[in-house]
């Protein structure tokens, strides 16, 4: 199961050091997103991350940094999920220009998940569970319907929203290929400890079984 983290939307003191520590503790992949921040903010963070981890980083904006730092890939903005030849051409242009080895996009309904453009390699579904940052939002999908949809899709789907040590097992049981951590990490004063607790749950309580090769995905 691929374990990813989405960065805090706001700059944090010592952020690069925290991200290095998360990678060292077993994080598979980082999604770097700093909405409404200048490119130099993202660049400064990347400068502080060990280059050995750069090929495990996916950008959500400032895509010109992708090749400069030899990063893994990009996460499409919501506007690039619209139907029509214009967005088809835009996605093709992004692939040609940036040559990512990974592309992903967020979906916010099961209908979006089923209709997502085929040339996007990985999909996120949000909120998979009640968001940690917004407990009043509730959970958007019934487990029965979600399991049925995940069972027939031809692409990996990653659970985003409400992922912690209590929900990670259910995410795996429902058929998600990966999980994306955000609120559980950044609302804690010890994000590395939170990650380790989730990895411990995966390693101790999930049976080992073959999985598709997804970069640094774990098999337990």
Question: N- to C-terminal separation?
Answer: 7 Å
CATH fold label: TIM Barrel
What kind of assembly state do the chains in view correspond to?
Answer: single chain
Largest sheet report? 8 strands, parallel, barrel
Q: CATH superfamily, please?
A: Aldolase class I
Query: What is the total domain count?
Result: 1
Query: What structural class should be given to the helix and strand makeup?
Result: alpha/beta
- Output the radius of gyration: 17 Å
Strand content bin: 15-25%
Helicity range of the residues? 25-40%
Spatial strand order of the main sheet: 1-2-3-4-5-6-7-8
Arithmetic mean of pLDDT = 87
Q: State the order of secondary-structure elements, H for helix, E for strand.
A: EHEHEHEHEHEHEHEHH
- Describe the global form: globular
CATH class: Alpha Beta
* Count of runs of 4 or more consecutive helical residues: 9
